[in-house]
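Handout, section 4.2: multi-component inputs.
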Amino acid sequence: MTTFRIAVIGGTGPQGKGLGYRFARHGHTVVLGSRAAEKAVPVAEEVTARLSGVEGAGEVTGASNADACAGADVVLLAVPYDGHDELVATLPLEGKVVISCVNPLAFDKQGPHGRIIDDGAGSAAESAQRIAPEATVVGAFHHVSAVTLWGEADYLDDEDVLVCGDTAEGKAVAIELARSVTGRDGIDAGKLRLARQLEPLTAVLISINKRYKAHSGVRISGLH
Amino acid sequence: MTTFRIAVIGGTGPQGKGLGYRFARHGHTVVLGSRAAEKAVPVAEEVTARLSGVEGAGEVTGASNADACAGADVVLLAVPYDGHDELVATLPLEGKVVISCVNPLAFDKQGPHGRIIDDGAGSAAESAQRIAPEATVVGAFHHVSAVTLWGEADYLDDEDVLVCGDTAEGKAVAIELARSVTGRDGIDAGKLRLARQLEPLTAVLISINKRYKAHSGVRISGLH
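Output:
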């Protein structure tokens, strides 16, 4: 297994913290990033405490978002969509594999639905790629629930991680990192623009969660 | 179990024929519709032949699309998106539960992706509801592959049917009909507008099928 040094941008939010915990649990080095380092440090300590006794766990530290990126091989964008573009523009992402799990959603009286980006011809992942053209952006980890990530199970072995991107190299990193979450490779779901489909699917899962009082996820049948 | 009389519009296409076969296999009466009755009749005979020896199977006949609708409780729209709106406008759908499994997709050098409807604020199912305001339109059965539907297995028990709609009554029909396909209730996935998310997810499955040489489907984890 390759051991990555992963910066989690938005690492103090539930999705970022949960994924950081999963990656570190399976040996990767994780830097949780936040707007201010002093916000990230206590969350890193909380994750470290949760990993005590887990053999082979990677180190988890906290830093400012930009400092977290600086030393990382892989940058996970786990931020809300509001302010996403402005934040991405400030990060040193050149030459890095950037994994976006950003879910642009909107909520109203009818419940959750996908936020419409670029009149339906865009997604958060594509925006990140446009803003950081020298990075390799892939989309992945949109559908794993924060609650399940933070749980005690070694793997979320009933879920799949769907990975989209325009280069095999970028996708290979996310496909391998998925093993830390589900215990098996992520699924190559095609080109980056399919993030238009993967990101708002989370609105469907939230809707199902409300209706069934569950923490639902996605599994692809017919492959295993 | 309620026994429905189901008209399948586009019943000679692979998705419509496969779903019609599944519904009849589990006791429902199916009328496969096509532009011309004489195109539908031989396909109905083919499905009937495939059901020979299946105890309790429902009758399968062929008719023109409009005639198929006339006597039906439930109308399944299983047509290509090209020409969809014009066709729906010709059908007598008033007072009926209309299930749309229409997948508006586009294909180019980069592969499949979701076709953009109403600048991202629409879907085939929503278009059908707008064109036929006195029908109860729900979206369901988007993700079951035609090949798997036409197979010998009694149930596709590794897949889920996701159902979206704005009335509980409409959704209840599709949720029950899902039992003929998967062996269990369909999943209530929320409001009709979430068809914007369900329909183009099929582009992701097609992309996965190409990459893995598979017939993939969707399963929701965390509920069962």
